[in-house]
Amino acid sequence: MQDILQWRWENNTVAQWGIALVTFVAALLVLRFVRDFTLRHLRALAARTENWVDDLIVVVLERTKTWFIILVAITIATAPLAVGRDGVRIMTIVMTFAVMIQAAIIANRIVGFAVDRYVLSHGPDVTGAATVRGFAFLARVVAAGILLIAALDILGVNVTTFIAGLGITGIAVALAVQNVLGDLFAALSIVLDKPFVVGDAIAMENVEGTVERVGLKTTRIRGLGGEQIIVANADLLRGKIRNYRRLAERRVVLTIRLAPETAPEKAAHFPEVLQQIVVSKTPVRFDRAHLARIADLGLEYELVYYVTSPDYLVHMNLLQAVNLDILEQMRRQGLALAAPSRVVISPSPPPPPGVAAPAGGRHVTGS
Which of 65, 80, 83, 196 could form a disulfide with 200, with the two C-beta atoms 3.0–4.6 Å apart? Predict the structure, then answer.
């Protein structure tokens, strides 16, 4: 029996191969038990909590493949064996690619996990989800490229020239499509920062309308006249954007000019009249009403109030009601609006015989 155990096969005794086999089986069972045991308890923990960390660990463990565990067990079992330089090289190559493939699978699932969480947290934002999925695809491609280069470097391949070539090519491509890349990253900024979403009424410079779609390069806006306005994402973020959908309340300033001959007691009472008109309306918050200035054109009053509804139609209906009530109160109290001043320049009548004409030859009247 001892002779059999000492018999050598491929530079190792039968006893050594037996120990390697036992080690392989034990390592395989232990690794699978640890994975399955950890998964079972983490799944139960993740079901009771809202923490995303345990969910991510579950996702990673679920993507740990059985073939990878088998290869790890083989590596552990054959480590004490004398397999020669060629055997070590083959094991190194196999394990390097196995680790890289397993890492690519896990990285792909982590990206998918992040996209799923985004979609779940942002609800039916189809445009945002499509944009994030587009960038997720780019992230998967970049991750696969990095893992491939790392694998080649571990295997002893000189990747310095390859990386330098990729860098030069990347710079050239980036310069050629810098506008497209700017719009792509602007789309990502819109999706993540959310200055507006689909359905928002926005205005910027000479563009005003409702957002219909946010694409990877352009945003489509339905203009007030019914036309579709297409704006590059980078241009859209470069200017100031007014988002009317997120309007909490609307400030309204009205200027009323009474005739300059208005009696002082009526002029003093008029701000109270304006306040009563606004307070009687809803949803409105009164701010102030004052005689702001006395000018040649008349007595100028400023009325300021806030409409506590973002609806533009509500604002216009209230503005109309306030204006009509102001006209009614002015009629009841005998107040008149200031009439605009006019200057009329007419030719002077011809002078009587023997009388010199006035300088300029014009007659000026004011009203």
Answer: 196
- Provide CB contacts within 8 A for 297, sequence distance 6+: 257, 260, 338, 340, 341
Count of Cβ atoms closer than 10 Å to residue 77 Cβ: 20
Query: In the prediction, which pLDDT does 275 show?
Result: 96
Instruction: Give the number of C-alpha atoms closer than 13 A to the C-alpha of residue 169, restricted to the C-beta side.
Output: 6
Identity (one letter) of the amino acid at 107? A
Ranges under pLDDT 70 in the chain: 1-11, 119, 121-135, 154-155, 159, 161-162, 165-166, 168, 170, 172-178, 341-367
Q: Which amino acid makes up residue 316?
A: M
The three-state secondary structure class of 234 is helix
Instruction: Check: CB of residue 355 under 8 Å from CB of residue 303.
Output: no
Contact 259, 339 (CB under 8 A): yes
Q: How far apart are CA 214 and CA 136, in angstroms?
A: 17
Region label for 123, one of left (φ > 0), alpha (ψ between -120 and 50) or beta (otherwise)? left
pLDDT at 251: 92
